[in-house]
Design goal:
Elements: H1 4-24, H2 51-65, H3 78-95, H4 98-123, E1 128-130, E2 151-153, E3 174-176, E4 197-199, E5 220-222, E6 243-245, E7 254-255, E8 265-267, H5 275-281, H6 289-299, H7 311-317, E9 321-322, E10 329-330, E11 335-343, E12 346-355, H8 358-366, E13 369-374, E14 377-382
Parallel strand pairs: 1-2, 2-3, 3-4, 4-5, 5-6, 6-8, 7-12
Antiparallel strand pairs: 9-10, 11-12, 11-14, 13-14
Helix pairs in contact: 2-3, 3-4
Bound molecules: zinc ion (ZN).
The site of zinc ion has 8 residues, from loops.
Protein name: Leucine-rich repeat-containing protein 63
InterPro entries: Leu-rich_rpt, Leu-rich_rpt_typical-subtyp, LRR_dom_sf, LRR_domain-containing
Organism: Galeopterus variegatus
Amino acid sequence: MVTRPLLTTESIILESQESARVQQGATVVLSISHFPGITFIPTPILPRKPRRQSILETLGTENENVENVPKQITPRSPEGLVITRRKESLLSVLRGEGFKTIRATRYETVIAMANMAIVNCQINGRNALNLKGFFLLKCPDLTPLAFQLIYLDLSFNDLRDFPMEILCLKNLQILKLRNNPIKVIPFEIQQIKFLRIFIIAFNLITDLPHGLFLLTHLEELDISYNDITSIPSEIQKLRSLEKLNIDGNELTSLPSAILKLNLTKISCENNFIHPSFWKENSLNSPQRLTQITSWFIVRNNLHKFYDAIPAKVQKLLKCTSKCEWCHGPKFGKGFRVIRSCDIFGASQLPVMFHVCSSSCYRNVKKSTYIPDVIPDKRIPLNLELREG
Ligand SMILES: [Zn+2]
């Protein structure tokens, strides 16, 4: 009963072949045992089909083939999708639509396999779970493994949102989310306190959250091939970080804070870091006169000589940032200057400095190394690269 539509399809093809052969005058004997097994037919579901598209297609097929089913279900969530597919598969079995049953139950089978893997992990007390390439739309419940899992691989799935189910894994050390359409890393990632290796390459990430920089045990971070445009200075908080891969993003420069890290390896290929980008990325507008005056007063401690300073002026003298070169006060945006460094095994990395004054700007331009970043660590600066 299940295979009826397939047999029909096969017989159509074979009939046309048969008629061609009959014309040649040959005798053809068809045997049912020679038909290919139905379970080996490649699935028509594309791995990266947008979810809304799948839902609409599922609904479309449903309306086409099952007229008697009331159309009250409009699934919006992955759960909704599964429910529809379950209903559909049951109805399909009753109606004998074999091919459709296979197509409709496929995702359920995948879910069942994922859950089996979790149960298997739980029963055998394993601490590694590999759900790579399941094309999962949603991460399964991982609470049964909350305290035992150390390694989790969810690469090559269809996860659109960062799987919050992971946050319950208190002892997780290695997390691989390579090749998923994830757009946002949540701030809550800081809850995975013991994370040492985090791979989220080939996703659609645009920003790095503050919470990521609170992972003090992080040794390896792979955020290559995303849509990241800048690396926050807070990256310097990752004191254990040894390997950083930022290939294939939209970075134009690196923050000077990166020089404070203790990396053994950095990879920064396929970004917008060619020297010809430097000029347009470090254009400076003139500083405001109030900013220059404030800087001069604070820098020379002149404000300490006056007993009374008007509130308005006091407000102006409050500086909010630090010069990345002299570590003194910086008012307003200051000046931006890019220099290239050979560091952490990479050459000509463009490092952006935000400095307080035109004198610091000149010092950065003139200097051949970076002083006092970390004692005993002198980072050589390259002279400006020739354009073109
Ligand atoms: Zn300065």
